[in-house]
Amino acid sequence: MDLKPTYVFALQQEAYPFIEQLKVKQIHQQKNIRLYANDHSFLLITGIGSIACSTAVGWFLALHKNVVMWNIGCAASQANLHKWQRIIEVKNKELTFYPELIGKSEFELNSLNTVSDFVGVEDLMSYGNELVDMEGISFAKAAQLFLNSNQIQIFKWVSDAGHKDFYKDGTWFKKYERQIPEIITVVDLETKLISTEVNAIFKNTNQFVSKIDNLLKLSFTQKEQLNKACLCFLAYKTELQLAELIEEFTDSVENISQRKSLLNQLLEKLRHV
Amino acid sequence: MFKQFIYIEKQIAEHENTKRVLTKFTDAKIVYIDHYKDVFNQSGSEWRLQKQAQKLILAKRTDHFYYKGSNVTPDFGFKNFYYNTLALNCVYDCDYCYLQGLFSSAHFVLFVNNEDFISETIKLINQSSEQVYLALSYDTDLLAIENWLPYCKTWIDFAASQQNLTIEIRTKSANYKSLEYCKPVDNVVLAWTLSPQEIINLNEAKTPSLIQRLKAIKAFQTLGWKIRLCFDPLLIVKNWRAYYKEMLKLLQQEIDIDKIDTISLGVFRMNKLFLKNMQRRREDTSVLYYPYELNEDIYTYNKYEKEELQNYLIEQLLNINANFRIEII
């Protein structure tokens, strides 16, 4: 199972350079929700605010589970202007989420506060050097209903220090898009790493169990026993070796009248590698 | 251990032990949290992925400063057998470890308010008419993290002042240096869990090798410490007899085996619920998928396998020294 990276933005303007660089095509639009895709990524635009974000994320994840969700976009802070930050804590007054980093981040780490109204220069001071946005916690909490915490990640770019109209002169965009290739590289690498780790933990033995089930008509308990024995085998040997052993076994069976004894023979072989 | 950031409960941010640990993680960013369970019990955690990038959480324990020992642990004849949990989870990564089934998170919680553990233990000792046996390094390996926080040393000093207390520090660590200058104390037992090197390679990730553990034992023996050897869990793997025999041969070469205080041995055994949780969390180790038998909510080898494993080890051990004190679990 390979997990796909999904880039999640509130606004079209934030998403635009990613759409260009990822070469994703729009595959769905419903009011403010827009979904783009290519062969190996999704890109979701949710609209501004908590309700829009959680609705879009919930809708998307009801359809797609094998993804790593990356919330990306602008945030305000009185420090680190025009820098990308990796979020390790996202919170509002009631809720908190701690994204699980699985590798060392090359980007500076920070906490993100989600608010429901615009925060001006003076109010921003109460957040110290932390970041402030309008979607982060809703994104995380909606995603958490569907995914493991490793599959929920956040990157924010410090767009302003409490200046609502920062985007009006258009100069912000050049600064914003400068490091986007690096962000895409991190997103790709970490998504692959999570996929690899998950695939190393969980093995797919269905095809082998099915093959024996077709031959011996196993009960539910026998399927469970066989699955566990296959996992025991796979701890030492490769999937190819397991396929060979199963093939060899099915070829050797001439009479299936002694099903239980045949299954026990196979289980013994699998368990005592 | 992932050292880029550390979670710290706000209430112990200024605690002396917090500051002490932070001297070992000088570049780490600190995330202040209300309660360790906010991180530790966060829903949707993937245990194995967390273990790959295990985070440190510094916290304050507010209750349960000790627990009564369970029926699957050795009590060495002590009626008042207790254990405490100065930390949750371990820096090592053993495939068979029950912690994978006990906790929903793989992150490492270190309780810094040792003074509360000590004062509650004093109350326990005062309430007990018989000797209290307290296993310190229970849901963790304290000697392995002695360089961060000298809990073993602190508790050894404490035990030295308490006649009615015996403490056991169980470890797989080879961290001899951090207790090098501690004087041996009669009512402190240093206990090493040992496995054949082949099993260490297969099932005990991130732990010191057998030879490193034996060298640490030898060093402590030279200083006069009371040493217990724990062959636990005994595992059935291909060629297990040869592996265990080779391990015992190495023991005879590397340590003063006749001076061993006690030996405990126990085959793999696991609470039914824990094994179910562990199997749900990983499919990459054969230890969890062996066809164990269920007996009174404990999964373990069948009677024949159990006896074969135990008897083989006992026979080999008694051949080395017929006077060994062996406890079978």
How would you describe this protein?
The complex is a heterodimer of chains A (273) and B (329). With 273 residues, chain A is an alpha/beta fold. Chain A has ten helices and ten strands. In chain A, strands 1, 2, 3, 4, 5, 6, 7, 8, 9 and 10 form a ten-stranded mixed β-sheet that branches. In chain A, helix 2 (50-63) packs parallel to helix 4 and helix 7 (206-216) crosses helix 8 (220-234). The longest helix of chain A is centred in the C-terminal third of the chain and has 22 residues, at 180-201. Chain A is elongated. The two termini of chain A are 26 Å apart. The mean pLDDT of chain A is 93. Chain B has 329 residues and is an alpha/beta fold. Helix content of chain B is 33%, strand content 22%. In chain B, the strands form four sheets. Chain B has an eight-stranded mixed β-sheet. A five-stranded mixed β-sheet of chain B has the order 2-1-3-8-6. In chain B, strands 15-17-16 form a three-stranded antiparallel β-sheet. In chain B, helix 8 packs parallel to helix 9 and helix 9 runs parallel beside helix 11. The chains are: A alpha/beta (273), B alpha/beta (329). Chains A and B meet through strand 7, helix 6 and helix 8 of A and strand 2 and helix 3 of B.
How far apart the termini of chain A lie comes to 26 Å
Strand content of chain B: 15-25%
Please write the string of helix (H) and strand (E) elements of chain A.
EHEEEHEEEEHEHEHHHHHH
The number of helical elements of chain A comes to 10
Rough outline of chain A: elongated
- Largest interface (C-beta under 8 Å): A-B, 38 and 32 residues
The profile of the biggest β sheet of chain B is:
8 strands, mixed
Q: Please identify the structural class of chain B as seen in this structure.
A: alpha/beta
Low-confidence residue ranges of chain A: none
Helix content of chain A: 40-55%
Q: What is the rounded Rg of chain A?
A: 25 Å
| Total DSSP E strands of chain B | 18
Query: What's the helix count of chain B?
Result: 11
Largest pleated sheet of chain A: 10 strands, mixed
Outline type of chain B? globular
> Strands of the largest sheet of chain B, in order across it?
4-5-9-10-11-13-14-18
User: How much helix is in the residues of chain B?
Assistant: 25-40%
User: What is the β-strand count of chain A?
Assistant: 10
Average pLDDT, all residues of chain A: 93
What pattern of helices and strands is seen along the backbone of chain B? EHEHHEEEEEHEHEHEEHEHEHEEHEEHE
